Amino acid sequence: MTQRPERRAAIRTSPDMRAHRFSQSSMISRIGFDDDAGILSISFRDTGTYLYYDVPAETFEAFCHAASAGTFFNELIKDRFRYARDPERRRFGPNA
């Protein structure tokens, strides 16, 4: 069975949320985006899920097609948007 490339198209998981998985990223496992609220959910492999507020839809789309999820996050998300840990998600990893 062939593995799908990391840059596959975003898929719709519910009427209000789109999602994308990063199988090759060592930092980020998946992202989700609520178009109505402008909330980007990022699931980090080691530290859990965080919500980023007032993110434009275009940023989510670009994130889905980024060559490196970690580089995209560090250069275009980190320290640019208000964020909070997702209160409904458990933290995973050695620093949980």
If you had to describe this structure to a student in words, what would you say it looks like?
It contains two helices and six strands. The protein has helices at 57-64, 69-77; strands at residues 11-14, 17-21, 28-34, 39-44, 48-52, 83-85. It has a six-stranded antiparallel β-sheet with strand order 1-2-3-4-5-6, covered by helices on one side. The protein is globular, with a radius of gyration of 13 Å. It starts with 10 loop residues before the first strand and ends in an 11-residue tail after the last strand. The model is unreliable at 1-13 (pLDDT under 50).
**Quick one: overall form?**
globular
Order of helices and strands: EEEEEHHE
Counted beta strands = 6
Instruction: Give the quaternary arrangement of the chains.
Output: single chain
Q: Helical element count?
A: 2
Search tags:
96 residues; alpha+beta; six-stranded antiparallel sheet; 31% strand
